Amino acid sequence: MSMLNTLRFGVPPVAMSVPSISNAIVVAFIFIEKGNLRIHYFHGRYGFWAYRFRYQNSDFDLIGYDSSQNRGPVVERSVSINLATNKMRIRENINQNAEGGDEKFKDTWKKFTLSKSIKLREITDFDGLEIQKMGVSGILCKRGLS
Asked: pTM for the whole thing?
């Protein structure tokens, strides 16, 4: 059975608690969704961030990133990056009085270029993969890569 088939069939999500810089507990789930490997971090009521990898050419390529910054039940900002299409969507809540479910979002789309794909085996520290507010030249800082 190939590695991809092993990942697609019979592998339940793996959950673990990991300490964060702020000493808050972060829960991480690793699972397969639509044939892609997902590494999803939950930071309680403060949001989440997640990485999507696709197995291709005998390696796992980073194909997506999603994050949400929350204030309790209120989503303040979310980012979705598609590395296959080189597009990034930033959603910012413009309703300062939102209580949860009544957010109003302003969507901003950006295009970017990435000089080379990011491989899972090259990532030495997921905390080092930081999303930056960069222009069209790039989106991911290189810290955390081997």
From this structure: 0.74
pLDDT for 52 equals 93
The DSSP code for 37 is E
Task: Note whether 79 and 66 are within 8 A (CB).
Answer: yes
Which pLDDT score, from 0 to 100, does residue 3 have? 42
The H or E element containing residue 8 is helix 3-8
CB of 83 closer than 8 Å to CB of 62: yes
Residue ranges of domains in the chain:
3-128
Query: Residue for token digits 């507990």?
Result: 25
Q: What's CA 85's distance to the chain center, in Å?
A: 15
Say if CB 53 and CB 63 are below 8 A apart. Answer: yes
Rg (CA), the chain: 16
Largest CA distance in the chain: 53
For residue range 34-44, list pLDDT tens digits in order.
Answer: 889 998 888 88
